[in-house]
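// run 5 | inverse folding | seed 20
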C-alpha cells in the first residue's frame, strides 16, 4: 500500500527535471497524475525548451509504475488553457487531492539592465503561473470538501537574494507570500498549503552556457564545461556538494503531500543543503 493510494496529483512543468521527478515519486507512492508543460520555448529562458516528447516520456514512466497520467500541453501563463487541462484531468480521474505548482524559469542580468520582457516573463511564469495553478485548483478542492495538499516551488532565493537575478528572486519572494496567504484562506477547508525551497538542482536550468558563464565569468567560452564550473557551484551550499538532485526535491514534495505532514501548513521546507547559512 502506497501512502498516496487513491489520490490524484496535478503537477505543472511535468515534462522533465523536478516536475518529472515529482510525478514519478508521487506515482510510486500510489497517486495518479495530471501533468502539464508548455513543451516549447519561453522567451529569455536560459534553458533549452522542453518538448512534447519530454512530457510523453514522463507519462510513459508513470504508466510503467502502474499509475495513470493525463498529460497535456499547456502554459501556466494561460489561465483558460491551464484550467481546461486540469478540469479534463479531474473528469477522467475523478478527483483532485494534491497540487504541485512547479513550473519555473529564469534569466540573468543586473537590475538596471534587465529588459521589460525579461522581468515580465519571469514573473508571469513563476508568480502568476503559481497563482493561476492555485486559482484553478482551489474551487475543485473546496467542492470536494475532503481536504488536500497544495505545494509550491519557491527557492532559497525566496529567503535570500542573488546578484543578476532580481526578476527570479522577487518572483519567488512573491510565491512565498502566496503560500502564506492561501494557507490561511484554505485552513478551514482542511487544505494544507506549503512550499519546497531548493538550492541549486541538477537540471537543465543550471546546465547551460549562460548559467556557466554567470558562475565563471573569468573563463573563456570554450572553458565553460561541467568539469570547470562544478567547483564554483560547490561553494553555494554549506554541505559538501555542488547541487541536489530532482529526486531530493520530489521526496520533500511527497512528504508534504502525504498524511505524514497532515498537521503541516504554511511551511517553506528548505532542501538547500544549508545554503542560506553559508
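// decoded
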Amino acid at each position: 500500500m502506497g501512502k498516496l493510494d487513491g489520490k490524484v496529483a496535478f503537477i505543472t512543468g511535468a515534462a522533465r527535471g523536478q516536475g518529472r521527478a515529482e510525478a514519478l515519486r508521487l506515482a510510486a507512492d500510489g497517486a495518479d497524475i495530471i501533468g502539464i508543460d508548455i513543451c516549447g520555448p519561453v522567451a529569455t529562458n536560459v534553458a533549452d525548451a522542453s518538448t512534447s516528447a519530454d512530457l510523453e516520456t514522463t507519462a510513459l514512466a508513470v504508466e510503467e509504475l502502474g499509475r495513470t497520467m493525463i498529460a497535456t500541453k499547456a502554459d501556466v501563463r494561460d489561465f483558460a488553457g491551464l484550467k481546461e487541462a486540469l478540469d479534463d484531468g479531474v473528469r477522467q480521474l475523478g478527483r483532485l487531492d494534491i497540487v504541485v505548482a512547479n513550473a519555473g524559469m529564469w534569466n540573468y542580468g543586473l537590475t538596471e539592465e534587465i529588459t521589460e520582457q525579461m522581468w515580465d516573463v519571469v514573473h508571469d511564469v513563476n508568480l502568476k503561473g503559481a497563482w493561476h495553478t492555485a486559482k484553478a485548483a482551489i474551487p475543485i478542492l473546496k467542492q470536494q470538501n475532503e481536504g488536500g495538499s497544495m505545494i509550491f516551488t519557491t527557492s532559497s532565493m525566496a529567503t535570500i537574494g542573488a546578484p543578476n537575478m532580481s526578476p527570479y528572486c522577487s518572483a519567488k519572494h512573491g510565491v512565498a507570500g502566496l503560500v502564506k496567504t492561501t494557507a490561511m484562506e484554505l485552513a478551514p477547508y482542511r487544505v494544507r498549503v506549503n512550499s519546497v525551497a531548493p538550492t541549486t538542482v541538477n537540471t537543465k536550468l543550471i546546465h547551460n552556457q549562460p548559467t556557466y558563464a554567470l558562475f565563471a565569468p573569468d573563463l573563456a567560452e570554450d572553458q565553460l564545461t561541467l568539469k570547470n564550473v562544478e567547483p564554483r557551484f560547490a561553494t553555494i551550499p554549506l554541505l559538501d556538494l555542488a547541487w541536489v538532485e530532482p529526486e531530493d526535491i520530489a521526496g520533500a514534495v511527497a512528504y508534504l503531500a502525504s498524511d505524514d505532514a497532515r498537521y503541516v501548513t504554511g511551511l517553506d521546507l528548505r532542501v538547500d543543503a544549508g545554503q542560506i547559512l553559508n
